[in-house]
UniProtKB/TrEMBL annotation:
<dbReference type="InterPro" id="IPR035090">
    <property type="entry name" value="Pyridoxal_P_attach_site"/>
</dbReference>
<dbReference type="GO" id="GO:0030170">
    <property type="term" value="F:pyridoxal phosphate binding"/>
</dbReference>
<dbReference type="InterPro" id="IPR000811">
    <property type="entry name" value="Glyco_trans_35"/>
</dbReference>
<keyword id="KW-0808">Transferase</keyword>
<keyword id="KW-0021">Allosteric enzyme</keyword>
<feature type="modified residue" description="N6-(pyridoxal phosphate)lysine">
    <location>
        <position position="705"/>
    </location>
</feature>
<keyword id="KW-0328">Glycosyltransferase</keyword>
<dbReference type="InterPro" id="IPR011833">
    <property type="entry name" value="Glycg_phsphrylas"/>
</dbReference>
<dbReference type="GO" id="GO:0008184">
    <property type="term" value="F:glycogen phosphorylase activity"/>
</dbReference>
<keyword id="KW-0663">Pyridoxal phosphate</keyword>
<comment type="similarity">
    <text>Belongs to the glycogen phosphorylase family.</text>
</comment>
<dbReference type="Pfam" id="PF00343">
    <property type="entry name" value="Phosphorylase"/>
</dbReference>
<keyword id="KW-0119">Carbohydrate metabolism</keyword>
<comment type="function">
    <text>Allosteric enzyme that catalyzes the rate-limiting step in glycogen catabolism, the phosphorolytic cleavage of glycogen to produce glucose-1-phosphate, and plays a central role in maintaining cellular and organismal glucose homeostasis.</text>
</comment>
<protein>
    <recommendedName>
        <fullName>Alpha-1,4 glucan phosphorylase</fullName>
        <ecNumber>2.4.1.1</ecNumber>
    </recommendedName>
</protein>
<dbReference type="GO" id="GO:0005737">
    <property type="term" value="C:cytoplasm"/>
</dbReference>
<dbReference type="GO" id="GO:0005980">
    <property type="term" value="P:glycogen catabolic process"/>
</dbReference>
Length: 858
């Protein structure tokens, strides 16, 4: 075991670390020998030893006496005992990688939506069964203890869940790599539904102790804001820049171990928290100026207090910018410190370091690495720029203009003056090269510049990331083609198309089938013969051989029904709505946004309700009961998205209480969607809706999760739906709607002509405006988006084909044998969408990183 697990624990850089490890002498020798011996001894994973470990943590870590022990304390003690085992593997992994000086990938993401860790860790270590027996022997139920764990508030949606899946795959496939992010004290928010409206309340996910993080007060880095830049010349006449003054905070590390499945490798996510105890002004406090004494400390802590502070106002924008720079600066300083321990020359930096920018949020790492190399390490501009270009790669996640991150130049000049001057130079040198290749094309230079002209000017972060990175990737084939035709179109003549590649997203099968759907996992293991499929989804193709085996098909559908019963019980507990688990479960769960078109879904529900109401009682008896399930959060400042939630709940209030309809149609909005809720919902779906306007969803990953669990998709020809269709076959997916290359023509037409409302849609809108679902005035702004708003997301265009697709689903479900065959094929053909495949492609084609499995102990 190394004396300083994870990174530069033994370095003596001024202002870098609060404590230094022993560099020599008798003490270090003795400690080293004892720690090596400790590393070699791992307690057997049997019931007596594990129970002993749990009891020890109950007694010493939790400081409990027997009558105080409850399921929360037992969960925490169990988690700490699992962490003990992880830390040993964790240290072995890092020491082994450091000793071999392997190349590591550093995955920079502002979000890591991890979900719960105890169940995931037990499955990875192969200890779920023995821990269940241990807890049962202590008088506790495993499921009750698992429920005590709060979801980590480190992400919002698909971006953060993707990052979590990728770190899982890095560990499982033995690739040396770390995740880097921020440790938010509060998550985005907890969502409550009050009178049908979303209400945001604080997500205090750290209210209980968090066994899955290790505070590292010895690893702190200074991060400066504001100040000024002075210029001078060194002995060689080279101009040097010094950034000084302003505010200096400290980023402190928290480490989160991430175990690989069925491997000795345990990787790490390092999260930064802005904390600095010496910011407290004791003199001011003693003089009675209490607020002044605390102000600097509070400013520091506010930086990492909340995931993505609301940026509807200038203070919020500045806080978010500071968050992004704190994250980028601390991460780059940490990576450099680790590299310097190797003693290798600077040109070798890209041989040991690959940095992936997960969207534009970490892009300030580009000018920060250039600054650190030039200003702090004394490299020339060209030497540093060569290292930057060979180190960074960039993943683009969106084509939506409002999601393309831009920072006002005046704000950057004020908060990060040195970085703004570096960005100016980066952009200037790039444009000079473009102009040399394409002379006299001023308009090209304007279009391709990282500095967008306007009042004020803005820095286009996606352009800056593109200029600095050796590779730019989209996250689905259709998305990657779109960004080459739109956002990065003007870059291709200069860089060449080979710089712009596709890496279709993937999901971790450990979390999204093995953990979330244990019955189906067991059935698949029975078919395959062992659990090897959990690391190689290509083996799922064997399931197709069981189609037509009525006994197997019955077992498959019994598992689906059991999962629906579990979800029905959850709905009754959380929403106080009783649903029939034998009904057809129609699910749309994801962030609430106009482009994802939950609005169109609820309009379709109203159409179904009106149709059922118009039927005779005799005819209604032939209809399949349906439960329509929504879940997802709207951004706190997104008024229209919040109205969509209100409309869903208002429709539910009417439909669910209509005695004429009964169980034929139920509408449910499940509040506070998170990873753990998803693990209950996804295995229970019969069909899931992924109905974004074509060309707007970069990829999506929830579609993959549903299909892996035998759920069928109703969706547009958008994002990863396209590739899922290619893998499972057109007969096993229900597609509808206009195509991506038709969208702009439709939008152009609707911009200059009155929106054409189909009779079926008109009838639905009339129902809302007549007050069937409450005060129509409440929904007027939402309905206006279809009319005077120009219907940007083309609901009026796609609604007729959407209704036809819903009818096709109804017809298909009436044939149970064909439906179960379709469900089995969905799971059998989803190997492409494993995050293991995605990470292998990144590692071999972008990062040039090789697996480095930690050998087992002798």
């Amino acid at each position: 075991m190394s004396s300083a697990p994870f990174g530069p624990g033994s370095m003596t850089m001024p202002g870098l670390l609060r404590h230094n490890s022993l560099e020599g002498g008798v003490a270090k020798t003795k400690i080293g020998k004892l720690m090596e011996e400790f590393d070699k001894t791992e307690e057997p994973a049997d019931v007596p030893n594990i129970q002993k470990a749990i009891i020890r943590h109950l007694s010493t870590t939790m400081v409990k006496i027997p009558r105080q022990v409850d399921s929360l304390a037992t969960y925490l003690a169990s988690a700490y005992s699992v962490r003990d085992r992880l830390i040993q593997k964790w240290n072995e992994t890092q020491e082994y990688h450091e000793r071999l000086q392997v190349k590591r990938v550093y995955y920079m993401s502002m979000e890591f939506l991890l979900g719960r860790s105890l169940d995931n860790s037990l499955l990875a270590l192969g200890l779920k069964k023995v821990y269940s027996n241990c807890l049962e022997g202590l008088g506790f139920n495993m499921e009750d203890c698992l429920e005590e764990e709060l979801n980590a508030g480190l992400g919002n949606g698909g971006l953060g869940r993707l990052a979590a899946c990728y770190v899982d795959s890095l560990a499982t496939m033995d690739y040396p790599g770390w995740g880097y992010g921020l440790r938010y004290e509060y998550g985005m928010f907890k969502q409550k539904i009050v009178d049908g409206y979303q209400k945001e309340v604080p997500d205090n996910w750290l209210a209980d102790p968090n066994p899955w993080e290790l505070p590292r007060p010895d690893i702190c880095y200074p991060v400066r804001f504001y100040g000024h830049v002075t210029n001078s010349h060194d002995a060689n006449g080279t101009e040097r820049h010094v950034w000084e003054g302003g505010q200096v905070f400290e980023a402190m590390a928290y480490d989160v171990p991430v175990p690989g499945y069925d491997t000795n490798n345990v990787t790490n996510i390092r999260l930064w928290s802005c904390k600095k105890s010496d910011l407290f002004d004791l003199g001011a406090f003693n003089d009675g100026h209490y607020e002044h004494a605390m102000s600097s400390k509070l400013q520091a802590e506010n930086l990492t207090a909340v995931l993505y502070p609301n940026d509807n106002h200038m203070v919020g924008k500045e806080l978010r910018l500071k968050q992004e720079f704190l994250f980028a600066s601390a991460t780059l300083q940490d990576i450099i410190a680790r590299f310097k321990k190797t003693g290798r020359p600077w040109p070798d930096f890209p041989k040991l370091v690959a940095i992936q920018l997960n969207d534009t949020h970490p892009t300030l790492g580009v000018p920060e690495l250039q600054r650190l190399l030039v200003d702090e390490e004394g490299l020339t501009w060209d030497e540093a720029w060569d290292i930057v270009n060979r180190t960074f790669s960039f993943t683009n996640h969106t084509v939506l203009p409002e999601a393309m991150e831009r920072w006002p130049v005046p704000m950057l000049e004020k908060i990060l003056p040195r970085h703004m001057s570096i960005i100016y130079d980066m952009n200037l040198f790039f444009l000079q090269k473009v102009e040399k290749k394409f002379p006299n094309d001023r308009d090209l230079l304007r279009r391709i510049s990282a500095i967008e002209e306007g009042s004020p000017q803005n820095v286009r972060m996606a352009f800056l990331a593109c200029i600095a990175s050796h590779t730019v990737n989209g996250v689905a084939e259709i998305h990657s083609n779109i960004i080459k035709k739109t956002i990065f179109r003007d870059f291709i003549p200069y860089f060449g198309s080979e710089k712009f590649v596709n890496k279709t997203n993937g999901i971790a099968p450990r979390r999204w089938l093995h953990q979330a759907n244990p019955q189906l996992s067991a059935l698949i293991t029975e078919v395959v013969g062992d659990k090897s499929w959990i690391k190689d989804l290509r083996l799922l193709k064997q399931l197709e051989d069981r189609i037509g085996d009525r006994d197997f098909e019955q077992r498959w559908m019994t598992i689906k029904l059991d999962n629906k019963r579990r979800l029905a019980a959850y709905i009754e507990k959380v929403c106080q709505i009783k649903v029939n688990p034998e009904a057809f479960f129609d699910v749309q769960v994801k962030r609430i946004h106009e482009y994802k078109r939950q609005f169109m879904n609820i309009l379709g529900v109203i159409h179904r309700y009106n149709t059922l109401r118009a039927m005779s009682e005799t005819r209604r008896k032939n209809e399949t009961p349906r439960v329509v399930i929504f879940s997802g959060k709207a951004a706190s400042g997104y008024y229209i998205a919040k109205l969509i939630i209100k409309l869903i709940n208002s429709v539910a209030a009417v439909v669910n209480e209509d005695p004429a309809i009964g169980d034929l149609l139920k509408v449910v909005f499940i509040p506070d969607y998170n990873v753990s809720v998803a693990e209950v919902i996804i295995p229970a779906s019969d069909i899931s809706q992924h109905i974004s306007t074509a060309g707007t969803e970069a990829s999506g990953t929830s579609n993959m999760k549903f299909v892996l669990n035998g759920g069928v998709i109703l969706g547009t020809v958008d994002g990863a739906n396209v590739e899922i269709c290619e893998e499972i076959g057109e007969d096993n997916i229900f597609n509808f709607g206009c195509l991506a290359d038709e969208v702009e023509d439709f939008r152009h037409t609707q911009r200059y002509r009155p929106v054409s409302i189909h009779p079926s849609l008109k009838n639905v809108l009339t129902s809302i405006e007549s007050g069937t679902f409450g005060d129509p005035g409440v929904f007027a702004p939402l309905l206006e988006t279809l009319r005077s708003g120009g219907d940007v997301y083309l609901i009026s265009i796609d609604f007729p084909s959407y209704l036809e697709a819903l009818k096709a689903v109804d017809r298909a479900y009436r044939d149970p044998n064909a439906w179960v065959a379709r469900s089995i094929r969905c799971t059998a053909h989803l190997a492409k969408f494993s995050s293991d495949r995605a990470i292998h492609e990144y590692a071999t084609e972008i990062w040039n990183v090789k697996p480095c499995p930690v050998p087992s102990k002798p």
